[in-house]
Structures
1.
Amino acid sequence: MKKGFGKVVLNPQEQREVKILSKSVLKHFQAIQDPRVERTRHHSLVAILTIAILAVLSGSDGFIAIETYGKAKQSWLEKFLDIPYGIPSHDTFGRVLGSIEPQVLQESFLGMTI
């Protein structure tokens, strides 16, 4: 990834990754209603869900592990996620994911294709 005049330039592999993630994870989870009060939203719901899903697929088994994964992959995640406040804390992952209706999350998963 290179920055030229403020614009991020992705290599072909990064372009493919962004395209795949945009068509699958980002698309299917953007319709989920954010349960948080607007003034408390520092991290987007799509970013939280995407990081959590990718972390779990990579073997993370709890909220601390999800946060650790996010921090380890932050430069890669920034290529396709808007995370101006960095990676959410494990407490944020737990609070937000715990407040989403399981049925809504399941429906989004069932509609997802990769």
2.
Amino acid sequence: MSTAAEVEELPVWTLDRVDPEKMKLLALLLADPNPLHFDPEAASRLGIAERPVNQGPSNMAMLVNLLRAAYPTGRLSRLRVQLRGTVIAGQAVRAGGRVTERVADGDGELVRCEVWLRVEGAPEGGAVLSGQAEVRCPAGTSR
């Protein structure tokens, strides 16, 4: 088990630009009829933004990308997040995290992490998602 003195940051995962066309496609795939996710005028009328707002599941997938990059042979066994803000079409985002605990057993290791997603340029406390994740890594494969 790791100790508090052994803080291990996860490698940062970034997306340079949230593509509004991909947001529109995801809304179609999710059967999400909310125009907030594909119509700039709808987002503007609601006073949220001048561009479409990214879907929550897509933002959560960015955290999964972070964990898959950090632990390519691991299996995500738990992801629990709080939605704290919005990601707007065209924004850049950065996902990060840190290991809070490692638990070894006969099958490998369970890695517990704090994770977050932030919009580039936002204050450090301005996470749009924050939460916890657990990744099960086969023996001899975790970082």
